[in-house]
Design the sequence.
């Protein structure tokens, strides 16, 4: 591990892109855009700022230099990436001079600059300049040029403008430092997006241009952005930032009411908000101010949330719309953008590209977007989990931290979202894109980023979590200790518990990796709770946050464990046409059937029934254990189905209802109640905590539904 | 004194207070309330001015700041002494909370961005951490 940069703002997640030259670029709209070439010890500011002062020129000696001259200076780094030009020098007219003397050659404060070039015109023209001399350091302030006009013309030339009148020598600048997203397509680099900054509060005083932030973490990048105070109609341009004192200086004095506790917002200028900038071809750091176009204003105030290359097009993502960007020869001349669909994407990290199809999360759900020559097409695909969107289960206030991931081995796309009041995502909406299947996973740790990395010649999904943890997705089943010996205790029954611990005198905990792992209660009192282990002795595990329900000696705990949950669609149950209860049973026998992979170690699946459109599962189960591997407890909502393949009532023995290995079912409401007049609708939910073995459910069947079963 | 729980290095701790006047009615203070954080030896770690929280206008004088537990802190117990004044100094309010930092955290914080950067010579996992760090990790295996 090595540090590329410190002191970065945590306010907005970064956006990354890689260039064809394997350079990495990092943007977040607050910190200076960064570049890393894979070689230097730390990253560098993107773009090289041009000299702000001119050099001075004069002729001396005797020789063949005759004419009227001016000169420019520009900075370069070790990779010959240049800046734009300095201001023009003084003009001189010389005759028969031996050399041109350059003095006051500007020096850069940027440590990236290692050399400087001096460019001079030939007499009679000032549209093309020629390389006269190079200073191979960033220290010396004098230089000498000895080239005659003929020699200059044989040197490298630098036209100030292209043939079409567009800028050329001044294109070497990275202008839109406030933009948050970057993408590459057709050898160009496209940047767009901005955000509203509202961290903390401010103190504003009528008649004063100074604004003091409280808990605001202002940065110098706020210069030239627009400052608003909630409740005031005026806006102000920020002219200076004192990062140490956490003050802003406004370009005019504040005309509103003095307020010690003002809410505020800092935004970029309105003209910038839907503007997309692009680079010169093959030059990621050459994004001058004039290389831009504007996305059509949408009357609903929609704003850019991301950039997505897909196929041969760039798509500009907004919250509720997607625009396609295209150009034929040069975007300076012929770039165009067109609205293609009225679905969007919540942020730049919530689109996942799989085989030229993009899966995207927006406020309405998940949609599958196909670009293409005919525009674009979007299909809504998240109906099975639409309750998450409809019932406000998702914490949209944290949506800037949501992200999508793809696991190519599983053929699954996940959208990592925060539920409730969480900050970083702890849950994932999961979609198997081959089988069109949905489920939801909950994790013990917050997760904040993802990448597909080449590991041992295979693209593997890596997830970044809290406390600097990194997870290789799909490896292991516990999210707990990584080196578990056969005799180690990972799942067992507790002896006792306190608010912040459990004790198991018989335990032999794994030698390492226990502290920091989740501790789940998977059965018995307190089932369903997961806490984080912060200390361990040979018999006692201490947790970070207290139990809500105190476990006891009936509680089965597990070190590590991934919570999972699948809920079926709603089915209408069949109605009996006969008054004969037995006949009704035969024809409309109601059963939930699981076809699973039996597990070598103890594992179970909880089945819940949601009847008649209810938001909560039924809790009127009766206590039952017929030795079929399905156990219900009176007053509980979970019917616990064993999927263990090694116990007396195991799923592999084919006892009771089982007809073949891996087949398990439970009957519900098929006797003792007249099915014609009772429950008519059912959604089944399966849930559990994965143990040492992967839980694989091949099929969930519901018997007794209308039109099948 | 109120305990606000266990945290680990790399977590964000909420510093939250609702100043009140002498009759315990929530009241805007004369200036932003301060939170002095003191370690178990009584040493002042830092003093933080708290910003107001008023996004929805639902609460009077609610102040909150999220503090990242960086290397300024270590495993152990801490006290937070909140102080404010109302009525031009007529009432000086205070409140005390405590929290404990337990083992198992990391001062770099949580990932909030990742990227795979493959170069001809090596592959790098780039990690952006909410502790303000940008890291590269070479050739994962």
Sequence:
């Amino acid at each position: 591990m090595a540090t590329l940069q410190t002191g970065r703002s945590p306010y907005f997640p970064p956006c990354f892109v890689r260039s064809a030259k394997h350079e990495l670029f990092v943007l977040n709209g607050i910190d200076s855009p960064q570049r890393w070439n894979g070689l230097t010890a730390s990253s560098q500011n993107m773009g090289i700022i041009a000299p702000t002062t001119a050099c001075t020129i004069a002729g001396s000696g005797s020789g063949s230099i005759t004419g009227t001259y001016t000169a420019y200076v520009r900075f370069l780094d070790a990779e010959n990436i240049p800046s734009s030009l300095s201001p023009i020098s003084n003009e001189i007219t010389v005759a028969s001079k031996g050399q041109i003397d350059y003095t006051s050659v500007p020096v850069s404060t940027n440590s990236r600059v290692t050399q400087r070039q001096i460019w001079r015109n030939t007499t009679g023209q000032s549209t093309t300049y020629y390389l006269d001399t190079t200073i191979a350091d960033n220290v010396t302030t004098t230089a000498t040029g000895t080239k005659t006009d003929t020699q200059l013309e044989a040197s490298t030339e630098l036209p100030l403008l292209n043939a079409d009148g567009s800028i050329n020598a001044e294109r070497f600048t990275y202008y839109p430092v406030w933009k948050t997203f970057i993408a590459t397509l057709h050898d160009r680099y496209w940047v767009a997006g901005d955000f509203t900054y509202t961290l903390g509060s401010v103190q504003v005083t009528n008649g004063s241009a100074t604004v003091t932030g409280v808990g605001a973490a202002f940065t110098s990048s706020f210069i030239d952005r627009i400052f608003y105070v909630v409740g005031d109609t005026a806006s102000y341009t920020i002219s200076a930032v004192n990062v140490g004192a956490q003050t802003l200086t406004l370009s005019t004095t504040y005309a509103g009411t003095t307020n010690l506790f003002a809410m505020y917002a800092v935004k970029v200028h309105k003209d910038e908000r839907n503007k997309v900038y692009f680079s010169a071809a093959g030059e990621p750091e050459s994004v001058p101010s004039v290389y831009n176009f504007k996305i059509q204003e949408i009357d609903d105030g929609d704003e850019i949330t991301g950039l997505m290359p897909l196929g041969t097009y760039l798509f500009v993502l907004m919250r509720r719309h997607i625009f396609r960007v295209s150009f034929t020869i040069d975007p300076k001349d012929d770039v165009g953008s067109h609205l293609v669909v009225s679905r969007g994407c919540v942020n730049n990290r919530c689109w996942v590209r799989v085989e030229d199809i993009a899966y995207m999360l927006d406020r309405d759900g998940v949609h599958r977007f196909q670009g293409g020559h005919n525009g674009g097409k979007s299909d809504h695909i998240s109906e099975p989990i639409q309750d998450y969107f409809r019932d406000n289960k998702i914490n949209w206030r944290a949506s800037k931290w949501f992200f999508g991931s793809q696991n190519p081995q599983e053929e699954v796309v996940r959208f990592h979202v925060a539920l409730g009041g969480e900050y970083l995502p702890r849950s994932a909406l999961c979609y198997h894109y081959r089988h069109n299947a949905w489920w939801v996973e909950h994790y013990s740790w917050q997760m904040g980023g993802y990448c597909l990395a080449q590991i041992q010649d295979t693209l593997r999904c890596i997830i970044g979590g809290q406390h600097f943890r990194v997870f290789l997705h799909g490896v292991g089943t516990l999210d707990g200790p990584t080196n578990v010996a056969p005799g180690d205790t990972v799942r067992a029954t507790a002896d006792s518990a306190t608010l912040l611990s459990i004790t198991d005198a018989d335990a032999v905990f794994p030698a390492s990796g226990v502290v920091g792992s989740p501790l789940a209660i998977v059965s018995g009192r307190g089932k369903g709770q997961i806490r984080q282990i912060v200390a361990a002795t040979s018999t006692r595990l201490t947790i970070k946050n207290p139990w809500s329900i105190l476990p006891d000696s009936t509680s089965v705990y597990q070190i590590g464990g991934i919570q999972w949950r699948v809920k079926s669609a709603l089915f209408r149950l069949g109605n009996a046409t006969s008054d004969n209860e037995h006949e009704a049973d035969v024809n409309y026998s109601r059963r939930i059937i699981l076809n699973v992979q039996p597990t070598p170690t103890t594992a179970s699946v909880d089945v819940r029934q949601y009847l008649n459109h209810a938001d909560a599962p039924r809790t009127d189960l009766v206590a039952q254990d017929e030795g079929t591997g399905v156990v219900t407890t009176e007053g509980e909502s979970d019917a616990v189905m064993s999927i263990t393949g090694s116990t007396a009532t195991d799923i592999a023995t084919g006892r009771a209802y089982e007809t073949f290995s891996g087949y398990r079912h439970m009957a519900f409401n098929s006797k003792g109640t007249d099915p014609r007049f009772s429950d008519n609708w059912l959604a089944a939910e399966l849930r559990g905590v994965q143990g040492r073995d992967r839980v694989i459910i091949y099929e969930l069947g519901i018997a007794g539904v209308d039109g099948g079963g | 004194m109120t305990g606000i729980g266990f945290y680990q290095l790399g977590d964000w701790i909420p510093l939250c207070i609702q100043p009140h006047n002498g009759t315990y009615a929530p009241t805007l203070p004369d200036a932003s309330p301060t939170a002095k954080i003191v370690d178990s030896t009584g040493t002042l770690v830092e003093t933080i001015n708290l910003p107001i929280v008023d996004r929805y206008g639902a609460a009077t004088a609610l102040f909150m700041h999220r503090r990242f537990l960086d290397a300024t802190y270590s495993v152990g117990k801490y006290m937070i002494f909140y102080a404010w004044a109302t009525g031009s100094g007529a009432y000086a309010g205070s409140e005390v909370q405590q929290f404990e930092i337990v083992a198992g955290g990391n001062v770099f914080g949580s990932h909030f961005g990742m990227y795979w950067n493959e170069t001809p010579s090596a592959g790098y996992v780039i990690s952006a951490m909410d502790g303000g760090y940008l890291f590269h990790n070479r050739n994962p295996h």
In short: The radius of gyration of chain A is 33 Å. The longest strand of chain A covers residues 56-69. Chain A touches chain B through 63 residues (CB under 8 Å). Residues 57 and 102 of chain A are 5 Å apart (CA to CA).
